[in-house]
Amino acid sequence: MNKRIGILSFMLGFALFIGSCAKDEPLNTTPENPAYVLEYGNLPAPEIPGDNPLTMEGVKLGRMLFYEKLLSGDGTQSCAGCHRQEHAFTDTSRFSIGIAGLPGKRQAMAVFNTLWHKNEFFWDGRAHLLRDQALKPIQDPLEMNETLANVVTKLTALETYKSQFEKAFGSEEINPQRISLALEQFMNSIVSADSKYDQYLAGKATLSQEEERGRALFFAEYNPFFPEISGADCAHCHSGGNFENNQYMNNGLDSTSAILDIGREAVTGKPGDKGKFKVMSLRNIALTPPYMHDGRFQTLEEVIDHYDHGIRYSSSLDPALQYTMNTGLMLDTQEKADLLAFLKTLSDYSLLSDPRYSDPN
């Protein structure tokens, strides 16, 4: 009896072991479509969606679609039209121009390190997952102004796409969900982790005296009682390996009555979210002007001046920023220059020409 129980226990344990192995194996990863090897340097290990793992053929398809102008109503614009690799996958225009010649309502957001974003997508977070975000610009009248049904029809007419969808998903079927999953895979593959600061952390580069002073200022907290050791307190909002905090915050751009774009409030319906927007990564910040959700600042000097003495009070203003309003950050000219020098060390120039992310055509 004991022997039988032992054998049954062994068999059950073995079955559970096999079952757990099978569960860990992504369903759409095959010998013909192996897993995509993601390189992310000093960044923490990302959480890759279990229902949409990165595969070689899926990322390839997503890359094709990212640069595909057929996704727009008149065949003139692609996702890459507003998220340009040479500008760290954003647009240096204040507002991107759509196919009808009309400007968008907000500054184009940079597309990199999306795997480290844990609080939805778009400035106001109206898209829960990246795959949800991927389809909205296609349908937006101000952007690509096309229907998903028409996109499917156009792509299905091309043997190149039918073949690639089969390689990525196991059949030639093209539908909006598969388009969104492929775009998500490609955008999740775009990683920026090779700036001078990354090299410094890895012991491969040395910061200049100016950059080191700026680094100390960046991470030091604001202290009105001891101005000589008070910092710029940037890490309050821009922390961790990706220099953001996965929150929505009001950073004092406007007073309550002057807030025209209510931001996060439009999604949550909560008055306390008025004027709050997604806190963006500061990686590549020197390469991605203009700044803020409405692109109001053209230079980083203007951004530093805003936080130093330009904060405007509103009911949803972040408390830490409100705390600085009486004195400002008390930064002198040299300290501002030092801070700017450090911010420039976050630029990853390899991203701008990495062939893995370039136009495949």
Write the layout of secondary structure elements.
Elements: H1 2-24, H2 56-66, H3 130-139, H4 148-156, H5 159-169, H6 176-189, H7 196-201, H8 209-219, E1 248-249, H9 265-268, E2 277-278, H10 300-309, H11 319-323, H12 333-344
Helix pairs in contact: 2-5, 2-6, 3-6, 8-12
Report the sheet with the most strands, covering strand number, pairing sense and barrel closure: 2 strands, antiparallel
Overall CATH architecture of the largest domain: Orthogonal Bundle
The coarse silhouette is: globular
* CATH class membership of the largest domain: Mainly Alpha
Runs with pLDDT <50, length 5+? Answer: 1-27
Order of helices and strands: HHHHHHHHEHEHHH
Order of strands, widest sheet: 1-2
Structural class: mainly alpha
Task: Please indicate the count of domains.
Answer: 2
Name of the CATH homologous superfamily of the largest domain: Cytochrome c-like domain
User: Nearest-angstrom radius of gyration?
Assistant: 24 Å
Q: Provide mean pLDDT, rounded.
A: 92
Please give the share of residues in helix. Answer: 25-40%
